[in-house]
Specification:
single chain; alpha+beta; BirA Bifunctional Protein, domain 2; 2 domains; nine-stranded mixed beta sheet; two-stranded antiparallel ribbon; 15 helices; globular
Length: 433
């Protein structure tokens, strides 16, 4: 199955269960002071959970553009290095606003995964919330008993608050959750190590694909929990991970979601992606991931800048530039050349990018040109100050070492550590004096 077909199967399934299919909310949030970006599918429904607004539909489903590179949910440093973290990702989700609850949510998730998508039941594990004495939260017996109808008890694992109590942020709607994990290892590996010991252990081939959140509480500013007016269901399934499993790949980047973009990068830089853990291969993955986040955030109204959400976008863009500059030996703007491909790929899912393709391309190219000039200037000035000549700058130098901005000096120190020169902050300050 192609990724487009898998997305359609999910939405059609929940449409058949009485859900209204709604469009993705913008990835950039402008009306919620607690969030910079949409980091979960439920963000646009927050007021429904809190009882501040009445939903037009009791049951909805969608695929939501999400970004996790700042705050509580921050995956940036893993992106491109491992096989399954991303900046922007799609979150497939179904919601119930005061309608069905755990029984239906669990039954339908199992039906879709095993009956419709034909995942091997023997490779699946589920988790339930074990409770938390400090917060007087009890074991989720209801979810446990529902799962027993479909899966052997030895595959139902109890999880702690970190893994099985979902919270959007420091405040807001929250509740116990039940995760579905899949073991993608070879048969030989599975015989050697029991899969349940690898659940939530950061194993690259034993991964969570779906989280069923049972919204029951509101986390207040003082840290206390308040019961919500009604109980709700909020589920989120990582689209990229699901496609990887169904297409039988070992990495999200080997699926048709990313291979087209990687092929475009190969043509531009005249190098081949070799699927390895080398810096060059990581660079291919970083670029194929980051261009999606950059493009859709700009299309949704967030320009790169030095503050707030704009700084996050600029940071992602500059990370991508440093990777192609250093590890693909490409010294001119590259990212903007990928926008036509991404816009066409998502034309029927998130049309806002193709509608603003020329504008987004122009913004990205200008940002790349500006940073490449800064990068080149910073490297030359560092060479002049220290007597070192850095032919391969590794992650590159982002800033003028004469700067009086302590934040910029700190960033320079961090980059120097990344290229193994290990200059401490006070040494950088001595240089700038």
């Amino acid at each position: 199955m192609t990724s487009s077909e898998i997305r359609s199967i999910f939405l059609d399934f929940f449409k058949s269960k009485g859900h209204t299919i709604v469009p993705s909310a913008p990835i950039v949030i402008k009306n919620d002071p607690t969030l910079l970006f949409t980091n979960a599918g439920m963000n646009q429904f927050k007021d429904y959970f809190l009882g501040n607004k009445n939903p037009d539909h009791k049951r909805v489903a969608d695929t939501q553009k999400c970004l996790r590179v700042s705050g509580k949910h921050n995956d940036l440093e893993e992106v491109g290095v491992d096989t399954y973290h991303h900046t922007m990702f799609e979150m497939l989700g179904n919601w119930s606003f005061g309608d069905y609850f755990k029984k239906e949510a669990i039954a339908w998730s199992w039906e879709l995964l095993t009956d419709v998508l034909k995942l091997d039941k023997d490779r699946l594990y589920v988790t339930v919330f074990e409770g938390d004495e400090k917060e007087s939260l009890s074991f989720d017996r209801e979810a446990y008993d529902e799962w027993k109808k479909y899966i052997a008890e030895e595959r139902i694992l109890k999880g702690n608050k970190k893994d099985n109590f979902w919270e959007m942020g420091d405040t807001g709607p929250c509740g116990p959750c039940s995760e579905i994990h899949v073991d993608c290892r070879t048969e030989e590996e599975r015989k050697q190590v029991d899969g349940k010991t690898l659940v939530n252990a950061d194993h690259p081939q034993v991964i969570e694909i779906w989280n069923l959140v049972f919204m029951q509480f509101n986390r207040l500013k003082d840290g206390s929990l308040q019961n919500l007016p009604e109980k709700h269901v909020d589920t989120g399934m990582g689209f990229e991970r699901l496609v990887r499993v169904l297409q039988g790949k070992q990495s999200n980047y080997d699926t048709d979601i990313f291979t087209g973009t990687i092929n475009e990068i190969e043509k531009i830089v005249n190098k081949k992606y070799d699927f390895s853990d080398s810096k060059q291969a990581v660079a291919f993955r970083v670029l194929s991931d980051h261009i999606r986040a950059i493009g859709f955030c700009i299309a949704d109204g967030q320009l790169p800048s030095n503050t707030g959400a704009g700084y996050v976008i600029r940071r992602i863009l500059r990370r991508a530039v440093r990777y192609y500059f250093s590890y693909l030996d490409y010294k001119t703007p590259l990212l903007f050349q990928l926008i036509p491909h991404i816009a066409q790929q998502f034309e029927n899912v998130f049309p806002e990018l193709i509608q603003q393709q020329d504008f987004v391309t122009k913004v990205i190219k200008e940002e790349e040109e500006s940073f490449l000039r800064t990068l080149d200037k910073g490297i030359r000035r560092f060479n002049d100050y220290t007597g070192f000549y850095i032919e391969d700058p590794g992650m590159g130098i982002m800033t003028d070492t004469h700067t009086t901005n302590i934040e910029e000096v700190t960033k320079t120190s961090t980059i120097l550590e990344e290229i193994n020169l290990n200059f401490l902050l006070d040494e950088i300050q001595k240089i700038k004096k």
